[in-house]
Amino acid sequence: MRIASLLPLLAVTTLLACGQETEPTPAPSGVSLTIQGLSLDQIDRVVVTAQPSGVSATLTRTPPNQFFQGTLTLPEGQYVLTAEAFTADPSQSAVASGSANVTVTAGATSAVMIYMLDPAPDPGQQTLEPIIKSLTASNANPLTGEAITLTSDVVHPTGAAITYAWTSTCTGGTFSDASAATTTWTGSAAGTCALTLTASVADKSVTSSVSVTVQPSPGTVNTAATYVPRPYITKLTMTHFSGGTAYNGVVTRGAPGSQTPGNFPPMPALKKMQFQIETNEGWVNKLLVTCNGTSTYATSSTQTCGTTTCFANFFFNSALPGSVCLLTATSSREYPGGALTDTFSAGVRVQ
């Protein structure tokens, strides 16, 4: 149970009685402790122990000021005071603890501040799983007894250390190092095997497999590659024709890699506007309209078109006069490993 992250403890050491060497019977010295600042009702008691003497005292709550008080009787000397806070549950260990050094001196009063810390760890952000970018085998059809190289490319979004574990569905095969990112595997009998990599960070893990066929004769490696062209938005067009009002705005983008700026001419207020995205190699196109920095007039739609030049059309109602809007077009093309995306924006004032 997490009670608190930081509890202040004030310990005042006071000599209860002291005598000089000439006195026949010196009185014992002691430590009187007062704890304040504990406002959590879950704290039932605080136990303070002095080392190396091992003397301890249980401090109890003193209503109504919520102080925890008690007394330790100690001779003069150097001590380490350890304070532990407990709940009313006798089976539960300390929920907070802290320590500090104190000197007990005859005829003097000293003070020490002990910070009692909650031992429960900060939960922090949820652990992210690693990402396996690629997993390859140097030969998909090795001979019996032939070692093949298994290579993986695994990353983690935060750069955390990754652990690796290789397994095989063929019991006769062996890995040179089953806990390395790159290893070798040798099959001892003919057959098809799934070689699986499990990449882990803390309690999160991902797996990926390659299939190999061990055979008594030489094999070949079958490879395939597919080019995925990147989508590119070339032009944004916005028009309106109704009720005697005509509007035609065009923003043309420069060549790939250029950063040609451009905004639409002022557009009429409260009109149904037609917007067109012209893109190359874009499969999915979206339009987002944001006015005055808010999503009051935001609209989003999705259209799918071919693999060459694509014209995606959208409709939205323009904002109130005086508004300033940002029109953002997004064109993307997905493939099994992810998606390639292009974004192009233009501003416009509403009049």
TrEMBL record:
The residues forming the signal peptide are 1-19
All copies of domain PKD/Chitinase, residue ranges: 132-217
What InterPro entries does this protein's entry cite? Ig-like_fold, PKD/Chitinase_dom
Q: State the UniProt keywords alphabetically.
A: Signal
Keyword Signal in record: yes
Q: This protein is called what?
A: PKD/Chitinase domain-containing protein
- What is the phylogenetic placement of the source species in the record? Bacteria, Pseudomonadati, Myxococcota, Myxococcia, Myxococcales
